[in-house]
Specification:
Blueprint: H1 3-15, H2 18-25, H3 29-43, E1 48-51, E2 54-57, H4 59-86, E3 92-97, H5 104-116, E4 122-127, H6 130-139, E5 144-147, E6 155-163, E7 165-170, E8 180-181, E9 190-194, H7 199-211, E10 216-221, H8 224-232, E11 238-241, E12 251-256, E13 263-270, H9 277-288, H10 292-301
Parallel strand pairs: 3-4, 3-5, 8-12, 9-10
Antiparallel strand pairs: 1-2, 5-13, 6-13, 7-11, 7-12
Helix pairs in contact: 1-2, 1-3, 1-4, 2-3
Length: 302
């Protein structure tokens, strides 16, 4: 049994005439007859009975037609939805991103809608650690990622901007009276930081080494909200990206006076995996706008 036989059977059942069914299917009548005969032999039942020049469904044929119609309708619907899914105008794009980029990603999409007019494109979001985002790209559950670069030959990425690192403190902390801070003076502070599975932890450890301090770390977390909440509760101070540090009235973000490296942010995709037209259009829009993250940071300052 194959899909073609099922379409032939359904058409013949609807028209109740071999000649008209063959014409509708654009095949010869003998080809149609042989196909129906093969299907009947495989099923072990007669599907049609002749009545003059017409044919009528047998009781078995009528029973089988209900399921064939349901199956073919489902396949047709799946084919239509697949076309919507891959359409450059109405497709679905899955994006993984760092939690510190939760404000930037909606801005990026609004710019895409405004500049391209593709307002019917749909987006799905997921956020998590760098490791989780990398795995989602490799598994194909996300099309694109907005994140720090990966050291993985299967993933390609392009820089779209950078994040500075800031120190966040609670509004009740003595340092909250300052607008900037020298990290070398913080050797006695209690720090809250990221779990080692987060790529930003490597960046922060590098900053500590760069300024020559070995901080006391009270606990580690995998996302920004937990770290921000702990700092707001007065449990310590933390180094975070500038975007994450600007989210709470209970916190103050201090500019770091030391000359420390910035953290590059990239748009990334799996190198050899098929990319739908919609996802490709969105990726190309980002690339055409060069360092769009830096543009966004200037935008929110206004």
């Amino acid at each position: 049994m194959n899909l073609q036989q099922l379409y032939y059977f359904k058409t013949t059942a609807e028209l109740e005439h071999y000649t008209r069914a063959a014409q509708d299917l654009n095949i010869s009548q003998s080809c149609l007859s042989h196909s129906i005969t093969d299907l009947e032999q495989e099923l072990g039942v007669s599907l049609f009975v002749r009545q003059g020049r017409n044919v009528r469904l047998t009781k078995c044929g009528a029973f089988f037609l209900e399921y064939v119609t349901q199956a073919l309708n489902t396949l047709d619907e799946g084919r239509e939805r697949l076309q919507d899914f891959i359409s450059s105008d109405t497709g679905i794009i899955s994006i993984g991103h760092l939690s510190s980029l939760s404000d930037f990603v909606p801005y990026l999409i609004s710019r895409f809608f405004a500049d391209t007019g593709k307002i019917h494109t749909r987006f799905q979001f997921s956020q998590g650690s760098t490791l989780n985002i990398e795995n989602q790209l490799l598994e194909g559950t996300t099309d694109l990622a907005i994140t720090t670069p990966f050291e993985n030959s299967h993933i390609e990425s392009v820089k779209i901007g950078e994040h500075r690192t800031v120190l966040i403190v609670s509004r009740s902390h003595p340092l909250a009276a300052q607008d900037s801070v020298d990290l070398t003076t913080l050797g006695q502070e209690t720090f809250i930081t990221y779990h080692p599975q987060c790529q930003i932890r490597t960046h922060i450890d590098r900053i500590f080494q760069y300024v020559g301090i070995s901080p006391y770390i009270s606990f580690e977390a995998i996302n920004d909200p937990i770290i921000l909440g702990a700092v707001a509760a007065g449990l310590g101070v933390a180094l975070v990206s500038e975007a994450a540090g600007a989210k709470s009235d209970d916190l103050k973000a201090l500019r770091i006076e030391n000359d420390i490296p910035t953290r590059d942010i990239h748009v990334a995709w799996c190198r050899n995996r098929y990319m739908t037209p919609a996802a490709k259009n969105f990726r190309d829009f980002i690339l055409e706008n060069d360092l769009i993250l830096n543009e966004y940071k200037e935008h929110i300052k206004k």
